[in-house]
Amino acid sequence: MSNTASTTLAFFPFDTATNTGEKVVQMLMALLLFAAVMGVILFFAGRFGGRRGDKVVAYLYLLPAILLLAVGLVYPGLRTIYQSFFDAAGTAFIGLDNYGTIFTDNDQLRVLGNTVIWVAITPFVATAIGLIYAILVDKSRYESFAKALIFLPVSISFVAAAVIWKFVYEYRPDQGNVKQIGLVNQIIVWLGGKPQQLLIESPLNTFLLIIVLIWVQAGFAMTILSAAIKAIPDDIIEAARLDGVSAWSMFRQITLPSVRPTVVVVLTTIGIATLKVFDIVRTMTGGQFKTSVVANEFYSQTFRADNQGLGAALAVLLFILVIPIVWYNVRTLRQSEAS
Amino acid sequence: MSAGLIFGLAACGGGDDSDSAGGTDASASAIDCAPYTKFGDIKGKTVTIYTGIVTPEDKPHIDSYKPFEACTGATIKYEGDKAFETQILVRAKAGNPPDLAIVPQPGLVKQLVATGKAVPAPEEVSANVDKFWDKAWKGYTTIDGKFYGAPLGASVKSLVWYSPSEFKDAGYTVPTTLAELQALSDKMVADGKKPWCAGISSGDATGWPVTDWMEDFMLRTAGPEKYDDWVSHKIPFNGPEATTALDAVGGYLKNDKYVNGGLGDVKSIATTTFQDAGLPIVDGNTCSLHRQASFYAANFPKDVKVAEDGDVFAFYLPGPDANTKPVLGAGEFVVAFNDRPEVKAFQTYISSDVWANTKAKLSSGWVTANKGLDPNNLTNPIDKLAGTILLDPKATFRFDGSDQMPAAVGSDAFWKQATSWITGQDTKTTLDNIEKAWPK
User: Fold this and answer.
1) For residue A71, is it within any domain?
2) Cα–Cα dist A40/B107, whole Å
3) Is residue A37 included in any domain, yes or no?
4) Between these two residues, A306 and B277, which has the higher pLDDT value?
5) Within this chain, do residues A241 and A304 fall inside the same structural domain, yes or no?
6) Using CA atoms, how far apart are residues A273 and A158, in angstroms rounded to an integer?
């Protein structure tokens, strides 16, 4: 065993690099490898001509992507589905027991319930805020500045956003000369209330976490929807104005129908991001205080509780939940392209 | 580059003790090579060691290997990684393990042995452990009758931090029994104080400090034998012994009169990070007592003097009576994935008293339960206190229980339920839920 290990390492010095020099060499080798593979493909592709040849060339170009997808996505996906039918150690076949646990165990039901709350609220609220904001600032004097303000959170990573909001919700006791350092609790104190441990109280804490994701996603929704609003042909708007519509009917009968495909895309994109939400929960509560969601639970079960079967089952569940959204998304895209 | 330079210096220092390379190199280079040369000529060979110990604690480790490198001519390649605990399993399962790994939990040692990639420790290491360590330690890594890893460092968890000056001014004395500890707490309450401060928030490991509290009280209210049975699940997790222990902890942590000094009410324990929890002892003196392991010393600001005559120090969390001294602690184990001669030689070196003393001289904030250790070699007061507690012949050492339990309990259900317990869940529900999570 030791011999094979050291020989492989001699030829393939990956994951043994400890200093910068070795790492640079590894990177160069990886680039060379990449260039070599591309060279071989281009070489063979160049040897085909004619009509049938074009097809062959197309498949040759697809080959690397298909291979990488197979290795990086299809195989792990199938393997995860396979693992989800096994016990914690991954040795004994237990059929659908892991799925049974997810739908019967109290803790797991709470996880599912939380995920439902997240998905039921986040996409709609984020999209609504984004849409209203886009309409309000459209063609106003400070449009680009106002847009930049709400777009800024999009450029922050989820973990950073979670850390920021953790400070916003931070609690200090109501004792002697101890000062609040969290914005929310300081406001509560100013209004004459007592500081609250906001992240402990369930179900309030889940909603407080959802606000973070909405804060991040509203900017994304606003940007996309604003572009869609600008794409509404001016003559339609002008015609409506001449007919003397109110602002509300303008929104209901002109704006909304025109940007409907975009709204669907935004909703579904945020919906998928919400289903996969992990960073915010893990950073702010670690899934404690009844705030865990499927993605966080899947990580905890796999890497902390060492229950790979249940972890895999949760991952598969997440996958299944995402499928209809993706399907709906693709269908809407196709329809709007066709029309 | 710089690593090469240091190696060069260490090699030079080997021949000449008065070399300007410094006291550490000089003392470090003087070891007897005989125990390692019998593994054959290992000059030029390399041993890789993979650990979760990173900057700045890695340096004393790397330095403590130099005498071995100087006398055998072998090279030790040290790799520290914060993600060690998940990565080591990945590497073992993928067939790409290091030669040696420094594993901080017996439970993880079991998982590694289960991958089939770990190899039992050589006889020389086994002999060293028999000679220098309490026999309980050997048991932690003996799996199916085979002994897999020698202990390396150790830490003491049964400590209570306090302010020596506050004790002096108020006329408090360090308690020697659990009853005295309670009496002291009551006295502090009578003096208008909230004596205890605690915090269990620690990212997704939130809850772990409660497990230490409970284990400490399990050792004190049920005794070491029952403790062992409880850890190995010979008695149920939710039995009468455990109920008594957790309720005893509740007497402190869920007691509104006792907690949470400078930090809030009982529930604030759940949101205070364990790093911040003991700080009210020194800043503002809003808290008097904080139960946490020896490594907590590192959390105090640099200008705080950690010593018996300083700003903050610790005393041994007393036993049920003055003569019974159960000690809860933790430690690391060296697990091998290879049995090449140089690996065995190096394993033998780091299980020896020679290494323990070399390491003690080089580090601060580190102790071991190696009986060959001369406590005078420990450099700072808290290490010395911990070393004295560990080497006390009257002490009964027990390893952190949650580190030995299956991961589903020890690093999941126990943490989560302990957190819920702090935020209001009753003792029975808490223990029942953990019992339910124990893998069948």
Assistant:
1) yes
2) 49
3) yes
4) B277
5) yes
6) 11
In this model, does residue A3 exceed pLDDT 70?
Answer: no
* Domain match, B36 and B121 both: yes
**Residues B407 and B344 reside in one and the same domain:** no
Interface touch B270/A200, C-beta < 8 Å: yes
DSSP B282: T
- The per-residue pLDDT of chain A, averaged, comes to 88
Q: What is the H or E stretch that residue B96 is in? A: none
**Are B297 and B256 members of one domain?**
yes
- Cβ partners under 8 Å of residue B216, min gap 6: B157, B158, B291, B317, B326, B328
Give the integer Cα–Cα distance in Å for B289 and B259: 10
Angle between helices A158-168 and A183-190 (to 10 degrees): 20
B150 near A CB under 8 A: no
Among A75, A11, A74, A67, smallest CA distance to A41 is for A67
Q: What is the ipTM of this complex?
A: 0.76
Residue A68, domain member (yes or no):
yes
Residue B364's domain comprises 31-155+329-396
Strand partners of residue B306: B312
- Quote the number of domains for chain A: 2
A306–B408 CB contact, under 8 Å: yes
Check CB contact of B262 with chain A, cutoff 8 Å: yes
The reply to whether B334 and B427 lie within a common domain is no
Which helix (H) or strand (E) is A103 found in, with range? helix A97-104
Contact B267 A289 (CB under 8 A): no
Q: What is the DSSP letter of A172?
A: -
Q: Which residues of B touch A178 (CB under 8 A)?
A: 262
- Residue numbers of the domain that contains A109: 97-159+202-338
CATH classification at residue B110 = 3.40.190.10
pTM comes to: 0.82
A180 touches chain B (CB under 8 A): no
pLDDT digits (tens, 9 = 90+) for B151-161: 999 999 999 99
Q: Report how many domains make up chain B.
A: 2
